[in-house]
Specification:
Elements: H1 2-21, H2 29-50, H3 57-60, H4 63-78, H5 85-110, H6 115-136, H7 150-166, H8 173-190, H9 207-214
């Protein structure tokens, strides 16, 4: 039951980010709602397709579809009254990332897949919706930036696997894992946590280019 409720909250949170990201694109109601629904349902759809699940989760239970739809519509009419949309976007995105990652990891474990598969699918489910949203709204994908994004998802999925393997009967395992992802993302946003330079791939500047730049 807790897994089900968390999944619904994750869908609502990601739907809000989809609506906010479309705010400056002059989209109509139907386009905005579509973007919100694709953002919130995309990650889980990819997960179920890759794992060859018999029926995609929102087809088997249309409650997910309705939550995505209603959340998108509600966000469309209320987002204009938000004072700081950027902050709401980042908090909702962090919340959705945390929930989707952990819910997917737990679901894949319940399907008796190996731990590496559960962690991988948890990360993919968590970040895929945001990638779809950012690409469709012509934004640089958050997962491709310097800021901690995929790493919190990985650590949350890993924690979920470890908890389920060692204390499977504990009812708050998912809450602990969700909290870890969310807290790491909030720290990354507010404390400017970036990957160290030696972990970043940087474009090399050719010697002749650097010489030309010094002439200006």
């Amino acid at each position: 039951m807790l897994l089900y409720v968390l999944g619904m909250f994750g869908i609502a949170a990601f739907a809000v980010t989809g609506v906010i990201s479309s705010g400056k694109k002059d989209m109509d109601l139907f386009s905005v709602v579509f973007l919100g629904m694709v953002t919130s349902l995309g990650g889980g759809t990819i997960r179920d397709t890759v794992l060859s699940v018999e029926t995609v989760y929102w087809v088997a239970d249309t409650s997910y579809l309705w939550v995505a739809f209603l959340s998108s519509v509600l966000a469309f009419f209320t987002v204009r009254y938000m004072d700081d949309r950027r902050k709401v976007f980042h908090y909702a995105d962090s919340f959705g990332l945390a929930l989707f990652t952990v819910v997917a990891t737990e679901k894949v474990l319940a399907l008796d897949f190996a731990a590496p598969i559960a962690i991988t699918m948890g990360i993919i489910t968590g970040v895929a919706g945001g990638i779809i949203r950012d690409v469709l709204s012509h934004r640089p994908p958050l997962v491709l930036g310097r800021e901690f994004y995929a790493t919190p998802a990985f650590l949350g999925a890993l924690l979920m696997v470890l908890l389920e393997k060692n204390i499977p009967s504990h009812e708050f395992n998912s809450i602990y894992a969700v909290s870890l992802v969310f807290i790491l993302r909030v720290f990354a946003i507010h404390k400017d946590l970036y990957y160290p330079s030696w972990l970043l791939y940087k474009k090399e500047v050719r010697h002749d280019e650097s010489i030309d730049n010094t002439k200006h």
